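pipeline/complex-builder :: batch 7 item 3
reading input block
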Amino acid sequence: MKKYLAIFLLLIVGFYLIQAFNLVPFGANRVGNIDDESTVGAYYLKNTVPKTSVANVVTAIVVNYRGFDTLGEVTVLFLATTGLGSILFRKRKHGEEEERVLKESSQLVKIGSRLLFPFIALLGIYVFIHGHLTPGGGFQGGAIIATGFLLMLVAYKNYKLGHGALTWIESLAGITFAGIGIWGLITGGTFLENNAFPGLGNVNDLISGGVIPIIYIAVGFKVAAELTGVLDILLSIKPNKN
Amino acid sequence: MVISPVHYIAVPLLAAFTIPLFAKIHKELTRIIPGIVLIYLTYVSYVLMSKVMTTGPIVEIIAGWKAPWGINLVYNGFSGFIASLMSIMGLLIWIYSYKFKKVDDEPALKFYILFLMMVAGSIGITITGDVFNMFVFLEIVGITSYSLTAFYRGRDGAEAAFKYLLIGSFASVFLLLGILLLYTHVGTLNMAQIAERMHTIPTSVKLSIFVMFAVALGIEAEMFPLNGWAPDAYSQAPGPVGAAFSGIVVKAGVYALIRIIFTLFDIEGSLQFLIVMGLITMIIAEVSAIRQTNLKRMLAYSSIGQMGVVLIGFGIGTTEAIFAAIFLMFNHAIIKGLLFLSGSFLVYNDDKKQIASLSRFGKKLPVVSFLFALGAFAIVGFPPFAGFWSKLYLLLAAADKNLIFLIAIILMVSVVEVIYYLRVVGKLYFGKEESKIEPKKPAFNSLIVMLILGAIIILVGVYPDVITGFIHNAADTLSDKATYISNVLPSL
């Protein structure tokens, strides 16, 4: 009885949700006239290139206009890693080796992963360094690098990650992001203001857009380190024997 | 560098990223740095609040983009008051928990990073002027709350945290869907501009958006029937975290819900909706509370019930009622904080946290028991404690609008409240036989915090004028929507 009631209620909620979303026409132009500027979307499309010298408008929105949100999202990831570390921590007895849940994989997988890993890492780095020019950016690049590490973790049962290095990368990248933000305050502007460099450079140059590429590179490092850390924590728990 | 509202977010974030490096120098720094940051935040609150009281609201833009193009923070009488309350409660709970934990190994030190970010995230929800930014801070608060709930790594803690995680993710998804739908119709994320354009949205869509926001924020605000996570989370989380949930996290949820209803939407009947939901929440929670044998669960249900009363206060909608509701929020933070902090010492050595095990603790732990009794008397609204005034003002405001039925129900529920709190206090002092459980003696720092909270309760009770000035200002700012919009968007 309870189950049917729940399904019935869900259907009602679903019906109204679909109705509400149906009123949004599919594929229609929601931005409006670019010169009108009544929506923020139109403003971004019109002003991003002249005001920030960033070719990729999405990057400008993510890192500059709404950089505060991005800082928050990076923190969410950081806190998730921290929380996982504290919940899943297991006291190791003296001399006990860390063990992974995965089994040893075949020679083919091992060699193949080793061959692929540098290229995956290179692609990830390329994606986040060119975040302000081409599609992609810090989050995407970082995730690509983390998949490379996942491949290594899967292939090699005893693949060791330098935890100290991960912590350093994570913290330094975070400090860079928050520090650039505070630098804006110190120099008399607002938090995260794009004023650290005198000029913004030319559109489509690798060095352009002021602090935007620097923040995205920091985000890339941070995301890569954090996702790798999460994978490592999750893979190296031994299931309870008793 | 001039002190501005963004310090509430920037400084804790920088500290949180730096702490793992400081931990390499000395482990103790992981504990100390969050405290220094919280002291700084309290100082920031002091500076900004005095500025708000003399010169009016502070609107800060981020990244150099004016509203509505960028994100902005709005620090006015209401948000400033709640943010200051949160930072002070955060500081007190940090002092209290300095040596509280049962586990003392290395990851336990991460407790303080998570705690600091939970406070900062809650403040972020309060001071932001942008709906998507609010979502981001809600995520921060969510992630930290889940991990803090599961902190003791027992099975029950994991279960409670998992339940919280499921419901909390539900809240995030609904909020995101609501924001998405809202954005497709108004083309902006800035709260003031949304409020201004709200009338252009068709009513059916507006209602859908409202329901999505109300569900998402109702979960954080412990509104019935979305509060299933609360009793488990409160009873399984470490004591200080329970106090932080009721004093900080839930306040952020209520604040967000109220901000959405009062500033963003102009739906007719949303205030009645608040009254009805508040009534149901209050009645069900208080009736459940009386049946609890576990002290922390009882406090959790009582906390939910109090949030119901707060929602009723906002729902009545007159400035006096809003004043009473904000006063109640303040009182609930300090009193429930004291109850949780002293209660967790009372049941510290009892794994089941039974009320029955408290028998005659009045002799063994005289100060803690006394403070718990003080908190219990204050929360049910006995004069001359702080809780009395807020309840009185609420009833007066209800009487002004001739809501006799409402008054009757609130009073009846208060009787229920009196019964279950006095039952515990009676057990503490007049229990039949002495409990076999040896209580844990409170540490010096914890005792100081509890004494401070007790002193505040008596001070506000005897001399409410110390706080009413701020609350009057807060109530006035909340009910004045036009000023909010013109503060954020001066050109329109």
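note: Chain B has 20 helices and two strands.
queue -> next item
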